[in-house]
Amino acid sequence: MNKSIFKNYANYYNFLYQDKPYKKEAEFVYKWANKPKRILELGIGTGQHAKYWCKNSQITAIDNSKEMLKNAYQHPNIKYFLHSIENLNDFIYPLSDCAVALFNVMGYCLLEETLPYLPLTKDGYFIFDIWDASKFKKQPPQVKVKYFDMGYRVSIPHQISKRLLEIDFIIVDFNKIKVFERHLIQGYFREDIKQLCRLHNYKIADIKPTKTWNCWYKIQKIR
């Protein structure tokens, strides 16, 4: 993940997503993963899911953005690390019962560079939500404007390939400060996930599609 991504965006992140149902999603993931005691969260951002898990679980949290971590929720059961998801093999993390990557974090990385290095116990789960690339044609990307307390954000998407989108984010706050970031985000076909699981000793335990591009996967380490 490019280190410059979210550098300025991070200052507005909690305001932009204050209406996101973090609590509902966190409870869903916790139950879906059979109430894990040790969780590794990839791309934790500002820790808005972990704030609900940390009451009952130990959280190891990594993110590539120091700006995000500076604004993150603090709790004794959450240990934050500034580190790249693509370089999991460069750092020794404690074994976890479950790894999670939420809010399309894996769209910014490559699953094939992540799955081999997840520090999971045998039969441990990896739960993530990604964009279903098969829906890009059915629901083509569109320009969107989102208003929030401090201003507004414009999202301008361009489809680069059948799996890859380039999205220009423009944020304008009420002080007339303008922030621009360009994000490259990868979608996956279901067959992509199946093939990667076969290659890296996982199996698909469950899939929960949605009406939007988002699709939730629970995969399990088999050895």
Structure, described:
- About 15% of the residues lie in helices and about 35% in strands.
- By secondary structure, it is α/β, with parallel strands linked by helices.
- The protein folds into two domains: about 10-135 and about 190-220, Vaccinia Virus protein VP39 (Rossmann fold, 3-Layer(aba) Sandwich), CATH 3.40.50.150; about 135-185, N-terminal domain of TfIIb (Single Sheet).
- It has a seven-stranded mixed sheet with strand order 3-2-1-4-5-11-10.
- The protein starts with 9 loop residues before the first helix and ends with a strand.
- The model has no long low-confidence stretch (mean pLDDT about 95).
Gap between N and C termini, in Å? Answer: 28 Å
Query: What is the multimeric organization of the chains shown?
Result: single chain
The tally of helices reads 5
Radius of gyration: 17 Å
Strand line-up across the major sheet: 3-2-1-4-5-11-10
Q: Can you tell me the CATH architecture of the largest domain?
A: 3-Layer(aba) Sandwich
Stated plainly, the CATH topology of the largest domain is called Rossmann fold
User: What structural class do the secondary elements suggest?
Assistant: alpha/beta
Name the overall outline: globular
| Low-pLDDT sequence parts | none
Largest sheet: 7 strands, mixed
What count of structural domains?
2
Descriptive terms for the model:
223 residues; alpha/beta; Rossmann fold; N-terminal domain of TfIIb; four-stranded antiparallel β-sheet; 5 helices; 11 strands; 17% helix
